[in-house]
Amino acid sequence: MPERIPVVEKILSANDRLADENRACIDAAGVFSINIMASPGAGKTSLIEQTVRAFSSQYRIGMINGDILTSLDADRAAAAGAVAVQINTGGNCHLDAVMLQSALDQIGLESLDLLIVENVGNLICPAEFRLGTHKNVIVASIPEGDDKPHKYPSMYRGADVLVLNKIDLLPYVTFRMDFFRQGVAVLNPGVTQFDLSCRTGEGLQAWYDWLASNLSDRKVIFQT
Ligand code: MG
Ligand code: ZN
How many A from CA of 43 to the centre of ligand 2? Predict the structure, then answer.
């Protein structure tokens, strides 16, 4: 039999160990952290921008952005009020726990409340590499189509939160909401879902409420 599978398993378990170390550092600093995953163009950066604007007067926010080449997204988060660290993945199509560890060393966790990681735009391998963040957030969007949960099951299965963005485009795009929701329900019936538009602001408040409640839970944990 080929030896490929054991090698892949070893890489993943080494990644898991580092992800656990990352989590320990994040917890020790009293930070709540999310890993945002999506296909390119779904609106990860727009969601981050809006979130940073809404929370930066109350909370100190760090953003770690994984991009193949540019720092455009990190620049947008920084302009909105976050401390941003860019990881150029050098062509790699996902972040892994090693990359996050080096970014955590740079970002100054002790001075943050919320850490937002923007993963590389890709619906396949980011799901395989735990980073050590608390919650996995997947951003889907109306223009990319209603078949995505059916086509990328591992991404949808591992999500804690599903944000469906660009709902303002529903009147202009064929998107069978039932078909989309059926796919999600089979893979991940308990996932927390928010339908919203980063452009119009519709639906954003429920997402903010979810985030705020996780941030305040974090404080309770660290006071006891
Ligand atoms: Mg982006
Ligand atoms: Zn990859």
Answer: 19
Can you give the pLDDT at residue 126?
93
pLDDT digits (tens, 9 = 90+) for 28-49: 999 999 999 999 999 999 999 9
Residue carrying structure tokens 């927390």: 192
How far is the CA of 174 from the CAs of 18, 72, 150, 169, in angstroms? 42, 31, 16, 9
**Residues with C-beta atoms within 5 A of ion ligand 1:** 44-45, 73
d(CA 27, CA 52): 21
Q: Which domain holds residue 22?
A: 4-223
Specify the CATH number for the domain of residue 19.
3.40.50.300
Residues with a beta carbon under 5 angstroms from ion ligand 2:
93-94, 125
Which ligand sits closest to the CA of 92?
A: 2
Q: How far does residue 65's CA lie from ligand 1's centre (Å)?
A: 8
pLDDT, the chain, mean: 93
Q: How far is the CA of 125 from the centre of ligand 2 (A)?
A: 4
Please state the rounded mean pLDDT for residues 93-110: 95
